[in-house]
Design brief:
Blueprint: E1 2-3, E2 17-18, H1 33-42, H2 47-58, H3 62-74, H4 76-84, H5 86-102, H6 105-127
Antiparallel strand pairs: 1-2
Helix pairs in contact: 5-6
C-alpha cells in the first residue's frame, strides 16, 4: 500500500492510498501463488467505476465506500469466526488435523466426506427453513407450550 503524504493536511487526517496494478512472477511452489494470481487478475479492473456508481446511487462518498469495502474484506476472517463460533471452528478443524496426522490420501478423502456432512448439517436450515416448526403463530400473544 502506498500512502501519499499531503503537506496541506494535519498528521491525524486520513491517509490517501494510490491504487496500483501489480504484475510479477513467482515460483510454481509459492504457497501464496493463488492469491498473487488474484491480485494480478483483479488488478486489471478499475474498482472506482463501481464505487462511483454506488456513490451516486446511495449518496455515500467514494472514500467512505472504499474504506467500508477494504475493512469488510480485511476483517472477513474474523467476521466468519464470529458467525461460526470458536467451538464449531475447532470441530470443523478436527477431521483435517487427524487426516494430516495420518498423512494419507485416503484419510484426507475421509476428512473431506466428514466435513461435507458437517457443513451440510449446518446448511440444512438455509436450504430447508421449514425443518424447524414455527414457535408461535404470527399475531398470537399466547406463546406458552400448553
Amino acid at each position: 500500500m502506498t500512502t501519499v503524504p499531503n503537506e496541506e493536511t494535519e498528521p491525524d487526517e486520513e491517509p490517501t492510498i494510490r491504487l496500483h496494478r501489480w504484475h510479477a512472477t513467482w515460483p510454481a511452489d509459492d504457497p501464496h501463488a493463488n492469491f498473487k494470481s488474484d491480485v494480478t487478475l483483479y488488478g486489471r479492473l478499475d474498482p472506482l467505476v463501481t464505487l462511483h456508481g454506488m456513490s451516486r446511487n446511495l449518496g455515500i462518498p467514494v472514500g467512505a465506500l472504499a474504506r467500508y469495502v477494504l475493512a469488510r474484506w480485511a476483517t472477513g476472517g474474523s467476521g466468519g469466526l464470529l458467525e461460526l463460533g470458536p467451538v464449531m471452528v475447532h470441530r470443523l478443524w478436527e477431521p483435517i488435523a487427524e487426516a494430516e496426522r495420518r498423512d494419507t490420501d485416503s484419510e484426507r478423502l475421509r476428512a473431506y466426506h466428514q466435513l461435507r456432512q458437517m457443513i451440510a448439517w449446518l446448511k440444512l436450515p438455509l436450504d430447508e427453513p421449514s425443518i424447524y416448526p414455527a414457535q408461535y403463530e404470527a399475531g398470537t400473544d399466547d406463546v406458552s407450550p400448553d
